[in-house]
Amino acid sequence: LVILKERVGAEAFKKGVKSYLKKYAFKNVTIPDFMTEMEKVSGIDLSSFEETWLQSPDFPYNQAVTFLAGKNTSINTYFKLKNKIADLPESTETILKNVWDKLESNKLKEALTLEYGSELSSGFLATMLRSGDLKVRQAVVLSQSKIPMELQTEIEGLLKDKSYVTVEAALYRLWTDFPENRHRYLDETDGIMGFPNKNLRLLWLTLALVTPEYNPDSKAKYFDELSQYTGAEYHFETRLLAFQYLK
Question: What is the pTM of this model?
Fold first, then answer.
């Protein structure tokens, strides 16, 4: 719709939407009905637009990128960096380091971290964790298939993060990558429920159950608690998570 508005002009787009809603109120409509109204108010033939953006089975990726990059500085920067890294993949970290402190958008930093975090050094990732935005911290954890030993202490600090998403990601990653410390990680996060869907508690109960040496006398209690969250009195999301973990 944004691209269509750009094509016909804001005023014509507004008139077209108003005319369309009035003419087809409470009726079944199709995409051509909408496009016909836009053509009437704008005087522009939109058949090529409709074919490219609405009818073609192939998404016009390059055109979309060009349009968005022209409208948003962060998107433009993202694709410039992406193209530069594609040409010099061995210089990924150097390229990002040179611009990192100049990037004003944390959304842009998050996207770059998710895409290239696995290729960055522990030192650079540690800098991101210490100074990064909430979403950047989460992206650092989520981008790692295995936490480097040099980042262990930094990631352990995230178990006290204010974000339940961060704590959930850090707990699972640490539990997986540093099995010798599983007891400590579980002790540190015991009792945290998380969001209303109880995401953290459900993960914690599952990890506690599958950690053989952890509180063996409480296994039955943990299993009963995890099972009870499948009950009809709980929200759908909570029940779904509980069933998935039980499976």
Answer: 0.74
